[in-house]
Every structure is written in structure tokens, then in C-alpha cells.
Target: Association with the SNF1 complex (ASC) domain-containing protein
Amino acid sequence: MDLVEGGGRNSTRLTHLFLGRTLNCPQGSSNTRRGIPTIINWTQGGNNVYVTGTFNGWKHKIRLVKSTQDFTTILDLPPGTHRLKFIVDDEWKCSADLETATDPDGNLVNYVEVGTEDDDATYDFVSPRTDPTTAPHHLLRSSTPPSEYVAQIPSILLAMASQQAESTSPASPSGTAQNQGQQQQQQPPGLPPHLEKVLLNSGAVSEEDNSVLPAPNHVTLNHLYACSIRDGVMAVAGTARYRKKVSCGLEWGKRVEKGCGCVIMVRAL
Model:
């Protein structure tokens, strides 16, 4: 994937205070800013560090500013969940300080959740595994004291619940009949979405070696896949993993009929 380094030379420069030091980062003006300032931090070393993600459609890479021990940048992200990944010295990497998950293609990525401006939180995205009782006060992601629970529901969840209720509630008797007809026409999927990403149907990762395939999603391991019988031949496949090595096994079976009427399958590896 060819990424273009994001600009920002013509934008207004604001000074942000992060962990007791001043960090200059390109930002838009307050009138045109469309997101919430979010600090992205990389602490696993390197010389040149960039970040990209779903917030820019994976089309541009944004350089992180190097400090004494880490790299930092500030992005204006809209509320919601964003997937991102770091490019460290021309190598794609995930940060150990952020939550990780797999995207629909089975790739391992980081993700961050950005709330609305009404939420009382500081979005500096330090390691979520940090013990809040031992972490410094300025590193806490929420102003709520440790070991204290509240019954207040975030405004973003209330807004999503109200939108879902409005979309599902019928406005008239005719709307009720229409909704029932749509529900009857919808059919359940044949397979869960994560099982449809079969390793053997994926494109080649390396142009030089077609035998190199992308790393499969862990949920597809130890599953038996079978194709329909064509010309009396059926093929089955399975994927297994031992430590970091992943292997796929395929078997073809030939349908053979004997004079007694018995049908046997002759396997070929």
C-alpha cells in the first residue's frame, strides 16, 4: 500500500502541553476543526514513525514527532471507534500500548474509541493495561476516581439508543406491515463473516513468491472446508497452526462406483 505523507504546512500551528513538555503539532483553526484533539503515542522505539488508519481512509501517513523516548502526534478525530496502525522504519507494526483487534480481512490492527466533547475524559491513550491505582494522575484516561462506580450513561450511547429506537418504531400501521415484510425477506447468512475469509481464497501477499499467503484469522483454524462435488471429485481443506507456522492441507476424493453398487472415495493428497 502506497501512502502519502499528510500535509499541514499551511495550517495553523497550536502548542499542546503533553506530559509536562511542549509539543508543536499542526492543527486547523478552532472554527474549522471537526474532531476532538486526540494524542497518539508510540513508545516502542524507531527512527521514523508514521500513523494511518480509518480516519483518513488508509490513504495518508502522518508523521509522529520524536521526543526523548517516544513519538507523539495529535489528531482531530470524530467521535467513534477508529482502527489505526503504525509504520516504523517502513514496517507495519501495532502498538502494545493500545487495544488490538482484527479487521474484516484478518489483519491485526490497533483501535481507539473517541467520545464526544461532553465526555469527561482525557484522550491520551496510554496503555489500557496500566493499573489505575499506580499510574500517575495525568495519565488516567478518566477523571473518575479509582474504585468508584457511577450510574451515568455516556451521551454517545444514549444518542445511539434513541436513533435505533426511532428507526425501529413504526410511524403508522402501514409502516408496521412494511417492516414485517422486510424481516421475512431477510435470510440469515450461510456463515459468520469471519469464516468467509478463507486463506486459500486470499490474494498473494508477495509478488515474487505466490506461495506466501496472508496470516489467517485465528477463528478459521481447525475448520474443515469442503467444496461441492464436481465430475465426481470433492476437495476438502483445513488450516492448522503450530507456534508461528501456519500450514494448509488439501485432499481430493474421487467417487468410484463398483459393480456391487457400492460407492467409495479414493483420496489423493
Q: What stands out?
A: Residues 7-32, 120-124, 126-130, 135-140 have pLDDT under 50 and may be disordered. The chain has two domains: 4-144, 193-268.
